[in-house]
Specification:
- This protein has about 180 residues and is an all-alpha fold.
- It has ten helices and two strands; from the N terminus they run αββααααααααα.
- The protein has one domain: Hypothetical protein af1432 (Orthogonal Bundle).
- Strand 1 and strand 2 form a beta hairpin.
- Helix 1 packs parallel to helix 3 and helix 7 packs parallel to helix 9.
């Protein structure tokens, strides 16, 4: 059973890596972002790890949710659909629709929210370590509504503890570094 689980995880990782192709996450190959999200959720089981690898494929590549359904089944496809941004004219409209969708998630599909929380945590960490002022401001502004719509009691509390820690770091971030300091 463990070998089957591992091969499914490896397959989902390879599938996502191929789908994302030459996309990058900052200066890194995109798979590095997916690996980081997968590490945060691996204790939630094989489905969580698979969803972590696939969480951006529908949003960022030509892969469709139907293709995910055919390749990985309905539950994985439903969870990927939950974490995929809805269409919109700009980030605010996309996120507004997406957060509304996530606020209605219940039951076993809440696993998707674990992946969403881990994804946001990895994004917040990267924006701070790279001093990406634009994204720091975006995540700082979005955090209250993100938490309101994604947080569930007793669901990935250790990820939420870290999200709170990094949220406070975003609030304290010094946007005005002295000249000559990096």
């Amino acid at each position: 059973m463990v070998e089957i689980d591992q091969s499914l995880i490896e397959y989902s990782r390879a599938y996502a890596e191929k789908a994302h192709g030459s996309q990058t996450y900052g200066d890194l190959p995109y798979i590095m972002h997916l690996d980081a999200v997968a590490r945060y959720v691996e204790s939630y089981g094989i489905n969580a790890t698979i969803i972590a690898y696939l969480h951006d494929v529908v949003e960022d590549t030509p892969v469709t949710n139907k293709m995910i359904y055919q390749e990985f089944g309905g539950f994985i496809a439903d969870c990927v659909s939950i974490v995929t941004d809805e269409p919109g004219l700009n980030r605010q409209e996309k996120k507004s629709k997406t957060y509304a969708k996530m606020s209605r998630v219940q039951g076993e599909l809440e696993l998707a929210l674990v992946i969403k929380a881990a994804d946001r945590l990895v994004n917040m960490q990267a924006s701070l370590s790279n001093h990406n002022v634009r994204l720091i401001q975006v995540y700082k502004q979005e955090y209250p509504i993100f938490k309101k719509t994604v947080y569930r009691d007793n669901l990935c509390d250790e990820i939420w503890e870290q999200l709170e820690f990094y949220s406070n770091k975003l609030l304290q971030y010094n946007f005005y570094k002295p000249l000559g300091h990096h």
